[in-house]
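Translate sequence into structure tokens.
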Amino acid sequence: MERSLYDVLTATASPRDLRPMILCGPSVLEKDALMRKLWDFLPDSFTIAPHHTTFRPPDGQTSSDSHYYISSEEFLNMTSSGEFATYNMYGDHSSGVSRQTIAAESETRRIVVMEVDMHGVEQLKAIPGFDARYVFITPPSLDVSEARLSVGHSGMEATRIYEPQRRLMAELGNPRVPEEVKEAELVYARVPGVYDLILPSEDLDRAFQRLVNYIYSSG
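Result follows.
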């Protein structure tokens, strides 16, 4: 019997299993929303691994709670020296999570949460000794996803959660994940042993409760 979210959150101070939590799936919005829900509701138990990125920083920032903004030259130097645990290059833009970042965040004794694509999962699984839990978030219908972009949240919450993704999509010049990429990720998700949990995301609140139940029942 699945416990309520309240029961889970009040039953124990922190999860027993502190392995990194890797969120994967073709919909950036759902991954980001669930990741930030973990951080918002349980800041003492979860931490988000910031990405190094060559995307243009907003308002001249050099870092934020989710990104380190660096030059393309710096990114290439980090790539060639093997500093990234996972990275991707999108045209003229690049993004990745460094091994040092994961190690530093892990030292806080909180679960490191990362959102990656299929390529990122393959990279992480290829690292000797890197033990993590992998969750595939199945995409909602297109109508649901687009509704969340416009009216899914209100006020400051909508800006905080979705504006970085709007900016990323605008930079890429493509607001949607190509269908062939989405299909490839869905096929990969059916390979036995790749993911520890397959999580539908039509109802984000329900998905969040299932994710928290899984995290707190492990270990």
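Note: Confidence is low (pLDDT under 50) at residues 142-175.
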